[in-house]
Specification:
Elements: E1 4-20, H1 27-36, H2 38-43, H3 46-49, E2 53-69, E3 73-77, H4 84-91, E4 99-104, E5 108-111, H5 124-134, H6 139-153, H7 168-180, E6 186-189, H8 198-215, E7 218-222, H9 226-232, E8 235-240, E9 243-249, H10 250-261, E10 267-269, E11 277-285, E12 294-296, E13 301-309, E14 313-324, E15 329-334, E16 343-345, E17 348-356, E18 364-374, E19 378-391, E20 414-419
Parallel strand pairs: 3-7, 3-8, 5-6, 6-7, 12-19
Antiparallel strand pairs: 1-2, 1-4, 8-9, 10-11, 11-13, 13-17, 14-15, 14-16, 14-18, 17-20, 18-19
Helix pairs in contact: 5-6, 5-7, 6-7
């Protein structure tokens, strides 16, 4: 019989948000109002006394209920602001709930923010002992597992270097390694794994899988990486605006989440931004030139990008990155793929037409990013998460499934770039 290790009953979390109104509050204003309204000053803060601050109640979580069994890996998914991180902070007892109660059976380890519990002036070696102690490990446990922690993090060369010189990736590798080796009954993992590279993310997922299968420990995993959620979690919780809208099989929960938050636009315009280059507009067209965001599998389509160079630029390139619905990279193609040369641009406005051939994708939802950059050096302009759909030829409005690329990933797309 499975044992319930986490019981979440009616959890709600309320924050008070202050809104500043009117002009800047000077010391003279404060002193004048203290004299005019001494009793109000004693009762309220200075800004409240002059009527320049208002507070609004915001419920980050509202009436959250679910249970977790021992040995389960539960995914927590939802859009930014849905309450995922707040929920983990409450489970970690970093912050108390406003309403409701949580019952936890077992030792909890958490990895919620990169480098939490690290001291920037201390070395990696010293921070392993400091962070381990903060997480509840004894000195003997840390010594016994020290070599494993360091090897897993892959920071042997930098072990005696102060962590203030570490990259964000090195930080998260060491932080995860310490948390994963503390042998908690329950491990809470937030989106911090997104900081690591693909190889380390795979290593972390393998470690979490090992923890649950071989050691029968429980994991709550928050991530926007739907591929990682589906590979690791059998059951998931979907949060929306602080409320639980669904709990169940991960595949069905992910499908519900993706289908409810995809929005297709055939034209997207971008406000002006400072910089040496700017992408102003992206539009999607069928072969006849009509604006569309859904295309039959047998039809090619065109992505038209309008951008501006505000100064002469050398050795730059325009690239497109196409993703599956769960943001797995499917194709990366640049204007330099065929010529093998980077481009020089004069000051002015340009239009780039990128042709996506027919039968390259299965039926499904996809997105792409456009980046204008100096390869491996500098990002000049970008446009992210432009979404489109490949539909069934016979029934364009049929229910779609999660698609994937069927063409050659190495196939370069055709770029045509013209100056206005």
């Amino acid at each position: 019989m499975n044992q319930t290790v986490i019981e979440v009953k009616g959890i709600s979390k309320k924050y008070k948000i202050s809104h500043e109104q009117g002009r800047y509050v000077t010391l003279r204003d404060v002193m004048a109002n203290i004299i005019r309204k001494p009793f109000s000053f004693l009762k309220h803060k200075a800004k409240a006394a002059v009527g320049m601050a208002k507070k609004e109640e915001f419920w980050a979580l509202k009436g959250v209920d679910f249970n977790v069994e021992r040995g389960e890996v539960i995914g927590i998914i939802g859009q930014n602001g849905a309450g995922k991180s707040t929920l983990l902070k409450i489970l970690s007892q970093i912050t108390p709930p406003t309403e409701g109660e949580i019952t936890i059976h077992g030792k909890v380890g958490s990895l919620l923010e990169v480098g939490t519990g690290f001291h920037p002036e201390l070395t990696g070696r010293e921070n392993v002992f400091l962070n381990g102690a903060i997480l509840g490990m004894t000195k003997k446990e840390i010594i016994n597992k020290f070599d494993e922690i360091v090897a897993f993090a892959g920071i042997e060369k930098f072990l005696d270097t102060p962590v203030k010189y570490y990259s964000s990736g090195m930080y998260v590798r060491l932080a995860f390694s310490v948390a994963a080796h503390m042998d908690p009954d329950i491990l809470l993992v937030d989106e911090v794994l997104a900081v690591g590279d693909a190889e380390f993310q795979k290593k972390c997922l393998g470690k979490m899988d090992e923890i649950t299968k071989n050691q029968n420990r429980t994991i709550l995993f928050v991530s926007h990486n739907m591929s990682a959620i589906q590979s690791l979690c059998k059951r998931s919780v979907l949060l929306e605006k602080g409320r639980v809208v669904a709990v169940g099989d991960t595949r069905s929960i992910v499908d519900r989440y993706l289908s409810s938050h995809l929005s297709h636009k055939s034209v997207i315009e971008y406000p002006e931004k400072a910089g040496s280059a700017h992408i102003s507009k992206i539009s999607l067209h069928d072969p006849k030139g009509s604006l569309r965001s859904e295309f039959p599998i047998s039809q090619e389509f065109l992505a038209k990008i309008e951008f501006e160079c505000r100064e002469p630029l050398e050795n730059v390139v325009l690239s497109i990155i196409i993703y599956s619905a769960d943001r797995d990279t499917l194709l990366y193609s640049s204007e330099s793929d065929i010529s093998g040369k980077l481009s020089d641009y004069k000051t002015g406005k340009y239009t780039a037409d990128i042709k996506v051939p027919a039968s390259l994708f299965n039926v499904g939802n996809y997105s792409f990013d456009i980046i204008f950059h100096v390869p491996n050096s500098k990002m000049l302009a970008e446009a992210r998460d432009i979404q489109f759909e490949i539909t069934n030829v016979d029934n364009p409005r049929s229910v779609v499934f999660q698609g994937h690329i069927v063409g050659k990933i190495a196939t370069p797309l055709q770029f045509e770039i013209n100056k206005h």
